[in-house]
Amino acid sequence: MEAGEAPRVTAPFGIVAPGKPAGYTGGILALPTPQRADPLLSTKLEVLLQAHFHMNCMSASNMLKPSPWTLSMDIAADISRMWRCAAGVALVVAAVVMQEAEAARILMLTPVGVYSHNNFYKAIAESLAERNHSVTLVTSQRPSSVRPNLREVFMAEADLSHHLPNLFTSDRFSILSTVFYTMMENCYKVLASKEIKRIQSEKYDAVIYGTANGECLLPVVYKLKAPLIAVMPNVLMGTYADMAINPQFSSLTASYVLDLPYPLTFTGRLISATHDYFLSHFNIHFVIPRIEKDCRAKGLCPDDVPSLVEMRQNTSLMILNSVRNLENPILPYTPTVVHAGGIHCRPSQPLPPDLEEWAAGSGAAGFIYFSLGSVVKPSDMPKQQRLVLLKVFSSLEQRVLWKWDEETMEGLPPNVRLSKWLPQQDVLGHPRLRLFLTHGGLLSLQEATYHGVPVLGFPVYVDQKYNMHHAQREGWGRTLNWKDLTFDLLRHTILDIISDTRALTEVKRRSGVMRDQPMSPGDWTTYWVEYVIRHRGATHLRCPAVHMPWYQLYNVDVWLVVVVVTVTVLLLISYLAYKTVTCLITRCCKSTKPKHE
């Protein structure tokens, strides 16, 4: 401290108030530091009180070195300022405490699934935490949140990525069967973990669980006695219509597994209806009972727990990864279905300096971004297809930014840059990006739509072929099969999309539609989760249609009676007409016969 300088006095929560003698707090009301039982509440108080102190509790006189002439003149003003500051502090504390009292404890059971699913789940958790709720997220993704009210419980045993076969060379059936059985086994491991046992002893106001083979976790929900909310990382499928408490119309759209174009033909409707009916019954009467049987055999489902089918149908809400105003065709939904598609999308940020310099160096030609997502392993790509890609990339005037899982690549052209990780949304939002080469994952296509970038897809597995065919039919993307990849076809398709202003116009239009919503997907989802909590499950929203037999729901019995009655009446009328005409003809013939004496 320099000679003659007044000592610096530390006000509550770290606010430094220089300019008063030792022992004088500058008129700031000293408050006891709050207990740290709830770190989130303390953090909010500190932030708001600091802002209040800066605006209302400190003046220019506090920042000046005191003198005998100015100190006495400040006393009256300091006393008045002290009461104003105290009143403000009381209001701030009351507001934060009241807001905290409305916060809920929410458990998200979403450990089963692939990495991209976790991005969707994490965005929901972040949105809930942003509204001050205390969220526990059980996930197979390593913790990355810095929010004090978002606790991430990492379940390494649920990570699916180490069990996937080569997605380029494996057939569709083997991929689906491997994924299905691995996810079931991972679910049992999670249920048996000490972390889940610890969670079951806690109190929660709502439980959100992932529908992707997560049925074995339903006993946890039963134990916690909290409203159940399901979250589905895709569009609504017929097999989950009962959970969503939403009638499914197979005549409007088919499951992405079938990949049937809209509008459905008679054959398409027949296939779609048959598929949904039998798959739903197979799921309810075989798959889920088998999961329950294994769960009880492993001692993970207590005897007092109801059947998984019964608990599954006690869902209060279904959160979908779908943008409702971009669905094609538009489908009818009950209030128990909430669309959260695009919840992970955000405005782009500046690229890292070295990457920005590389992108800016692409000039007017711009650059192309190539990524196969977080599940597909790029280095598993067959050599023949990789060589075709390299040859085509080297012939383009555009630069190519390629997300690749290895440091180097043999025969890499000078206009191609590799990277193991890239900030995808920042890349997609860059003004010099011309085209997005993608595997066709749902989250990637939502991001491309949000940022208004045309796509060329190379589907690998599951729903990606369906997604890319949808984009192609809508006019903002094209799709190619890996087995059909040739130099001429690929180069011509890339150049055609880049020069096609119609594709760019359409994707920009879709971007505007996606952004034009009354509330953000995060706020919309949070509102409905809070609604379910406020109304203790919101059972009044449940549509009775899902509990009606199909022949009653679609009035098959009514129309059958109408048809039978109509046919009967027509037959009766026809019969009466026939008898009447016959009688008239007979009488007419008799009247014309000559009389014999």
Question: What count of structural domains?
Answer: 3
The biggest sheet, with number of strands, parallel, antiparallel or mixed sense and barrel status, is: 7 strands, parallel
Specify the helix fraction band: 40-55%
> Could you say which overall geometry the principal axes of the C-alpha atoms support?
globular
Top-tier CATH class of the largest domain: Alpha Beta
Radius of gyration: 33 Å
SSE blueprint:
Layout: E1 9-10, E2 16-17, H1 39-57, H2 60-63, H3 68-101, E3 105-109, H4 115-130, E4 134-139, E5 150-154, H5 172-192, H6 194-199, E6 206-210, H7 218-224, E7 228-232, H8 241-244, H9 266-297, H10 308-312, E8 315-320, E9 337-339, H11 353-360, E10 367-371, H12 383-394, E11 399-403, E12 416-419, H13 424-428, E13 433-438, H14 442-451, E14 455-457, H15 464-474, E15 477-479, H16 487-499, H17 501-515, H18 521-534, H19 550-553, H20 556-592
Parallel strand pairs: 3-4, 3-6, 4-5, 6-7, 7-8, 8-9, 10-11, 10-13, 11-12, 13-14, 14-15
Antiparallel strand pairs: 1-2
Walk me through the structure:
A hairpin with a 5-residue loop joins strand 1 and strand 2. The chain is globular, with a radius of gyration of 33 Å. It has three domains: 93 residues, no CATH class; 247 residues, Rossmann fold; 163 residues, Rossmann fold (3-Layer(aba) Sandwich), CATH 3.40.50.2000. It has 597 residues and is an alpha/beta fold. It is 46% helix and 11% strand. The chain has a seven-stranded parallel beta sheet, with helices on both faces. A six-stranded parallel beta sheet has the order 12-11-10-13-14-15, with helices on both faces. The protein has a two-stranded antiparallel sheet with strand order 1-2. Helix 12 packs across helix 16. It has 20 helices and 15 strands.
